[in-house]
Amino acid sequence: MEAIYYGAQFFITVYYFYFFVISLFGFFRKYKDDILPPASRFAIVVAAHNEEKVIGELISNLHDLDYPKELYDIYVVADNCTDSTAKIAAEKGAAVIERFNQVDMGKGYALEYTFNKIFSLDIHYDAVCVFDADNLVADNFLTIMNGHLLKGEKIIQGYLDTKNADDTWITKAIYISYILTNRFWQLSKYNLGLTCALGGTGMCLSVEMLKKYGWGMTSLTEDLEFQTKALMNNIKVCWAHDAKVYDEKPLKLMQSWRQRRRWMQGHTNVAGRYAGKLFLEGFRTRNFAMIDGAMYLIQPFFLMFTGLGMIGNIFMYEQVYDKPLMAAVSFFSQFIYFSIGLVLEKVNIKAFWWLFFYPIFALTWIPVAFIGFVMRKNKVWSHTLHIRNINHENLHLYIPSKVENRRVS
């Protein structure tokens, strides 16, 4: 039993050390000129299910982007809506695509339907940008994405920020987790030439690539499934650190729990289907990006192992006399490390004390991972209610970081 315990601890340590090493490459940025003359034409797709409280502000925001108006169109897919989402979207000037299907339910199906509708039009688009109805978007988003597309990138993920960070301790903890993920995960992987993670919103997809490989995503985490499918075809997800999208986060722990449980259901489902294939293909072709992608896919399982390891620490009582000191040193070290990340991201100083919420919130991922694994074959979509009708002009009142938009003359 003791050998199994220490063996498990060894593999968990190696796994997390691997991601620590990757995070070190987030301490710098490869500044490139992402501002190139507007040339790409975009179809902006907003996925919406009963979002009448927030859809209007997003569309108004999208109409005001710093990009030639003739080079982008706004489409809203009103998916199984029973409220005024479609009516408000049309009044605000978006092209509305209504979809009613009580069998194939969920964002993945809605996007598949919408992409096919758009591709059937006699309009040439270079890329599709996908947003959720509760988002707000930085003015320079399309300008930055245009630069990435012109450099030959096919899938680009924008910087995911928090629209309502200052609401509750949950939103504060989530805000911190996203800031750290953006800096020490997404930017690090982009610097290393590895594939980044799609976030489901704020993503830009080349139409040429979509038509060649198709969308076809039906899992509860259609973004993860698509990035994995793309990586199997040696197409990496790239990162746009200056293209910000502000997302509404759940206010309460149970709301966040349900949302993350759905993510873990989809994550473990995709991992079961693709992790082995990615590992084998990566070793066969000596493609380290694929191996790294497989490492990311199995993350929920290491979360579960971490939970079991914590239980093991309790039972291995004769070995834990020094654990309080080790835990204190570990917490202090992580606090300093994460604080550096917040400094690099130019976060307002008032958000630094929110770091104390982060480890509490992070621990809740462990039971979520177990439940997600048990429910991995359940594809029932659970909708997250959005209520924070914040407009773009007042966004700075709700987030502690400076809202910056690089205007192009």
Keywords:
eight-stranded mixed β-sheet, Spore Coat Polysaccharide Biosynthesis Protein SpsA, Chain A, 14 helices, 12% strand, 49% helix, disordered C terminus, 409 residues, alpha/beta
Q: Number of helical segments?
A: 14
CATH H-tier superfamily? Spore Coat Polysaccharide Biosynthesis Protein SpsA, Chain A
Average of per-residue pLDDT values = 86
**Total beta-strand segments:** 8
Major sheet: order of its strands? 3-2-1-4-7-6-8-5
CATH class placement: Alpha Beta
CATH fold descriptor: Spore Coat Polysaccharide Biosynthesis Protein SpsA, Chain A
Taking pLDDT < 50 over at least 5 consecutive residues as the criterion, the unreliable ranges are 405-409
Major sheet: 8 strands, mixed
What is the count of structural domains?
1
* CATH architecture identity: Alpha-Beta Complex
Percent of sequence in beta strands: 5-15%
Name the shape in a single word.
Answer: globular
Q: Secondary-structure element order, as H and E? A: HEHEHEHEEHEHEHHEHHHHHH
List the helices and strands and how they pair.
Layout: H1 2-23, E1 42-48, H2 55-63, E2 72-79, H3 85-91, E3 95-99, H4 107-119, E4 127-132, E5 136-137, H5 141-150, E6 155-162, H6 169-192, E7 203-206, H7 207-213, H8 222-232, E8 237-247, H9 253-285, H10 288-297, H11 299-315, H12 323-344, H13 358-363, H14 365-374
Parallel strand pairs: 1-2, 1-4, 2-3, 6-8
Antiparallel strand pairs: 4-7, 5-8, 6-7
Helix pairs in contact: 1-11, 6-12, 8-9, 9-10, 9-14, 11-14
